[in-house]
Structures are given as C-alpha cells and as structure tokens.
Amino acid sequence: DTPLSPIPFALRIRPLTCTETRRGDRQVVRSLGDGTVHVTEARHDATFGFSAVFDAGASQEAVFEGSGMRQLVELAIDGFSCTVFAFGQTGSGKTYTLMGPLTQSKSQPSSPGLLGLMQRSFTYLLEQSRSRGGDLALSASYLEIYNEQVRDLLSPGPPCALPLRWSKTRGFYVENQLSVDFESLETITDLLLQGSQRRQTSAHALNRHSSRSHALLTIHIRSRTSILPTRVPQPSACPSKLGTLCFVDLAGSERVKETGSSGELSVEANNINRSLLALGHCISLLAKPRGKRTHIPYRDSKLTRLLARSLGGSGITLMVACISPSSRCLSETLSTLHYASRARKVTTRR
C-alpha cells in the first residue's frame, strides 16, 4: 500500500508596511529560527511549528529553495499531480510570494531577484526539459473562481463562466478550458502576466490590489513517447508520463468591517469567505484519523471541487501560509496559523 505523507507546510511572514509602521503597529509575530514562530500580545502567547519558516528578510530565492518547490517540480516531471497554494489574510503577501511584484508587465519585467515561486519553477522546469533533449511537452491553463463562477483567463474576449463537470476517470474538471502549449520562458511568463491582468481585483482599506477571485494556473507536463530500437522483435512505445503542477493563489480572507467594503465588494468578500470556509471544513475533516472520517463535502464550493484531488487523493501538495506581523492584524494572523495547524495533519497517498 502507498505510504501516507503529511502535507509539507511553509510559513512566510511579510515585513511591516510603511503604513503599519507610521501607525505605530507593533510586531507581534517572530520566527524562533527552528521552524517555529511565536505570537505574543496582551492575551495571546502561542507557538506554532512548520516545515519551514521565512521571516521578513527572506529572499524570493530562499523561499523557492527552502520550501521544497524545486522537489515539487521534479515530482510533477515524474508524472505526479502536484499543487502549491498560498493562503492568508488579504494583503499578507500571497500573490507576491507566488508571482513577485504586482507592477510587473511585459513592458516592465520584474527584477530577477523579486520573481516568485511560479517564474522560478518555470525556469527550473524548462532547464530540466532541455537537459532531457526536449523530451517534455508542456502546456498551461489558467482560470479564476469569481463569485462562484469558473472563468478562463487565457481565452480571448471577455471572461465567461465555464461549466464544472465530474467524471469517474478525471474527477472534477472544467469543460472547454483553453490549454496553451509553450516551449520558452518568455511564452509561459507572458501567459502568466496576460491571465493575471485579466483577474478580478479591487482596492479597499487593507489592500490596493486585492484579489477578488481564487486563481489556478496549471502546467501540464507530458513525457513525449519514445520508440524502442527497431532491432527489438516487436517495436512498442514507452508509456508517456503525465504530470501536473498547479499554482493556487487563494483570495484573502477578510473582515468586511476592516476593509470598509460595501455593495459589490461586500458580495465578493462574502463569496470569498464562504469558499474559504468550505475549504477549511474539508481540511478539518481530512485532518481526522482515516478511520474516524465522515463524508468530505468537496461539492460545497467550486474551489473545493477543483482541489479535491490535491487534498484528498494521491496528489502531492505544498501549502504556503502568508501572514502579517502587525498587531492590528493579530486576529486574522491567528486564524491563518490555526488553519495551517489543522492542515498540517492532513495526509495524502504518494
């Protein structure tokens, strides 16, 4: 039987912002340097452990190397279904960790040192493909879940809702989603930036570029079929491997009172929080010993349906929790840390 493996978990603590420093916010979260963080404030004193912890001074390269992202790319090449997702309060640095600065564009590329997990993974993946003599066929798909609608971020024209289907062989999948082949870093980076610029964002009190949707960029990796030498009595094709590497940028949890959201922003926030609550519920049930689990309600949201295989199947998942060290964000930070602690108990089959 395939052994059970706990989901690896990394924590990233962003620096205090200029606004938080001017406001006089205190830093209430500190890394203890051994995979643990300490939260201390008037009525709260708690320590949490992770596979890896990155404090405010950690570089993007350090996060890539220390989180296990390089190994995840290698497993995807070997045919595994791999997923990395970043989560946390809005404004906690999730999109920066995955992509780098939000201001980058095709005409204004980001400094190489600031590139996120995505671009570094693309670079490593293409290096591996070249070292194998171009043996890997690569393609990408990119979608967002906005107000419980699944929308393709790569298809031309205005984003339109796509149906989410179920089959015994594929599990949950998005019908009619566009998949684009690529062979160069420039092409996949352009696809990433093109899709990200179409993603639904808004400004509010906590974040000038708040993501109002969950985004999933999936890289499909297929080993090209090779033919055995003709001297073999019965020539046959070597079976090709099909792996995936999925990057999930979850919209931030938020309290409507703190963000000052109203009208459409409030509706968006409620949909975001509802889907994150459904994800948290699934994670809580998955964290129970296998003999004590009840039905896992993946169908409660589009997000949990699309992540069902990553969380509860044979997929390999890396989670990156992002938090603010500010005393003003203490409640949401503790919520993220407790959420992460539950998720660390989830095991998957390798």
TrEMBL record:
SUPFAM superfamilies: P-loop containing nucleoside triphosphate hydrolases. The gene is Kif12. Its main location: cytoplasm. Belongs to the TRAFAC class myosin-kinesin ATPase superfamily. Kinesin family. GO terms for biological process: microtubule-based movement; mitotic spindle organization; spindle elongation. It is found in: Cytoplasm, Cytoskeleton. It comes from Turnix velox (Little buttonquail). It holds the Pfam family Kinesin. It comes from the Eukaryota. One of its GO terms (cellular component) is microtubule associated complex. This is Kinesin-like protein. Residues 6-346 form the Kinesin motor domain. The keyword Cytoplasm applies. CDD domains: KISc (cd00106). ATP binds at G88, Q89, T90, G91, S92, G93, K94, T95. InterPro entries: Kinesin-like_fam, Kinesin_motor_CS, Kinesin_motor_dom, Kinesin_motor_dom_sf, P-loop_NTPase. GO terms for molecular function: ATP binding; microtubule binding; microtubule motor activity. Keywords: ATP-binding, Cytoplasm, Cytoskeleton, Microtubule, Motor protein, Nucleotide-binding.
